[in-house]
Amino acid sequence: MTFEELVAEAESVSVDGWDFSWLDGRATEQRPSWGYAGLLAQRVPLAEAVLDVQTGGGEVLAGVPRLARLTVATESWPPNVAKATELLRPRGVAVVADPDEPPLPFADNTFDLVTSRHPVTTWWAEIARVLRPGGSYLSQQVGPSSAFELVEWFLGEQPAEVRDARHPDRGRAGAEQAGLTVVDLRAERLRMEFHDIGAVVYFLRKVIWMVPGFTVDGHRERLLALHEHIQRHGPFVAHSARYLIEARKG
């Protein structure tokens, strides 16, 4: 396929939800060794009341074989709210439209497990407020300089404060400032490969904070240069950053 055909195809695909299966065969990303989905499958059934914050299209929570008696999810983007509701409501999960800003629309001490995969922002004080004493927040987060080989291809070299903005140490500090005790903190960098320019376009349309304001027309010159790079050198390689954090309320 030509550059124009690859780009047009990637522009025409829906990016609702948090399902990346369109990239199968076109891009790859290593998964963290701790296996977040497996951790959820172990922990969620043991809880009485679970809150999944920023659930996206509900895909991660839907993958848990046995849910808690009370399971609630929040999401801010209307297309994802609709998708998550369609996916999770048949399993008894209440999906709450929420702007992802404090306060969370729940009473104090409501949940004994709060989860979130790749939240844009973690409102630590609110997490601590809605957790029951002895409850835990379990989250896989995006770490510092994630996929910055790709980000900087389009935006140029980023300053240190941007590169380090999502450092695990900041997560620990936020949790402790909210009165939580961090009981697990693990970080990894993981190889990503983009095999064609369509995969890049789809990824940047879906993960909108990577290159803010990304459009094909606005970034056509750099897209074409990247397409030519892939044609000459093979897959474009980047490295995602992920960390797992568990924080407990005393």
From TrEMBL:
<dbReference type="InterPro" id="IPR013216">
    <property type="entry name" value="Methyltransf_11"/>
</dbReference>
<dbReference type="GO" id="GO:0008168">
    <property type="term" value="F:methyltransferase activity"/>
</dbReference>
<protein>
    <submittedName>
        <fullName>SAM-dependent methyltransferase</fullName>
    </submittedName>
</protein>
<dbReference type="Pfam" id="PF08241">
    <property type="entry name" value="Methyltransf_11"/>
</dbReference>
<keyword id="KW-0808">Transferase</keyword>
<dbReference type="InterPro" id="IPR029063">
    <property type="entry name" value="SAM-dependent_MTases_sf"/>
</dbReference>
<dbReference type="InterPro" id="IPR052939">
    <property type="entry name" value="23S_rRNA_MeTrnsfrase_RlmA"/>
</dbReference>
<keyword id="KW-0489">Methyltransferase</keyword>
<dbReference type="GO" id="GO:0032259">
    <property type="term" value="P:methylation"/>
</dbReference>
<feature type="domain" description="Methyltransferase type 11">
    <location>
        <begin position="51"/>
        <end position="137"/>
    </location>
</feature>
